[in-house]
């Protein structure tokens, strides 16, 4: 049976001992406190998971302390063995890393909103565009094509991380700050091109493409990816000075998990 060394230097049975390792949150993982649960987003794949009940409190304790021994003994409603097994599973899933010392991390709270009980939809985007000039549509088409190729060429499980890498690279060279009108125009052109495609282009592809249009024009803006509750959903949007551009008021429901740059 496997053993591990505790902090006092003694070997102990891995199955029966309390987890003694310090932990940290990997750079590819983002989490958000939705009140009754913790949402976990893997930036490599874009997949979302949720921790409910006592597991939600375990993650909060780990985030505050970076110490799994505290979590194993401080959670009501769960035994130390249950907490140990959860921490091991989070390690196995790549959602936690070992650390030589405690490394607490931030867990943003999603804005509190009135529950809809799933009875209505909340828009989170700009209106369907009208016409755009041929030149700008060509540029938007190149940008959208680049994003779609980036997403679909390669391992499907890594498509989200490839788009993030593309955006990270694209925001490095432009130095001229853009204006609200330019962002709205870029989104308008991308949506105009996307409207003629035989498949749905969601906010991720639209905003990433608009960011490329701006970058190819030498203009710089910010990009955010966030999460909201009721129900749990993801959204991407463009920002200027930290404020959403060409977005409905409902975007305020989202807690940003990733900022580029």
Describe the structure.
The structure is a single chain. This protein is an alpha+beta fold. It is elongated, with a radius of gyration of 22 Å. Helix content is about 35%, strand content about 20%. α1 (about 55-65) runs antiparallel to α2 (about 70-75), α4 crosses α5 (about 160-170) and α4 crosses α7 (about 205-215). The protein folds into 2 domains: about 5-100, Outer Surface Protein A, domain 3 (Alpha-Beta Complex); about 135-260, no CATH class. It is built from 7 helices and 13 strands.
What is the H/E string? EEEEEEHHHEHHEHHEEEEE
Count of alpha/pi helices:
7
Low-confidence stretches: 1-19
**Overall geometric form:** elongated
Distance between the termini: 47 Å
Main sheet, how many strands, which sense, barrel?
4 strands, antiparallel
Please state the structural category.
Answer: alpha+beta
Numbering strands along the chain, what is their spatial order in the largest sheet? 12-11-10-13
Compose a concise summary of this entry.
The protein has 261 residues and is of the alpha+beta class. The chain is built from seven helices and 13 strands.
């Amino acid at each position: 049976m496997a053993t591990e060394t505790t902090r006092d230097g003694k070997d102990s049975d891995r199955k029966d001992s309390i987890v003694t390792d310090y932990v940290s949150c990997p750079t590819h993982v983002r989490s958000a406190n939705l009140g009754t649960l913790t949402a976990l987003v893997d930036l490599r794949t874009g997949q979302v998971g949720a921790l409910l009940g006592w597991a939600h409190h375990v993650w909060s304790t780990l985030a505050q302390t970076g110490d799994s021994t505290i979590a194993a003994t401080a959670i009501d409603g769960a035994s130390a063995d249950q907490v140990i097994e959860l921490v091991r599973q989070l390690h196995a899933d790549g959602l936690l890393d070992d650390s030589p010392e405690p490394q607490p991390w931030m867990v943003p709270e999603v804005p509190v909103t009135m529950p809809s009980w799933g009875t209505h939809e909340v828009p989170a985007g700009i209106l369907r565009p009208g016409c755009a000039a041929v030149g700008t549509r060509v540029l938007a088409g190149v940008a959208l094509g680049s994003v779609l190729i980036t997403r679909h060429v390669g391992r499907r499980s890594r498509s989200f991380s490839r788009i993030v890498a593309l955006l990270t690279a694209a925001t490095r060279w432009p130095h001229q700050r853009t204006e609200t009108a330019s962002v709205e125009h870029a989104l308008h052109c991308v949506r105009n091109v996307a409207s003629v495609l035989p498949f749905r282009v969601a906010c991720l592809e639209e905003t990433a493409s608009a960011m490329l249009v701006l970058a190819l024009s030498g203009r710089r803006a910010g990009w955010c990816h966030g999460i909201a509750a009721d129900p749990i959903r993801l959204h991407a949007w463009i920002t200027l000075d930290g404020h959403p551009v060409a977005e409905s008021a409902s975007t305020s429901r989202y807690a940003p998990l990733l900022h580029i740059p």
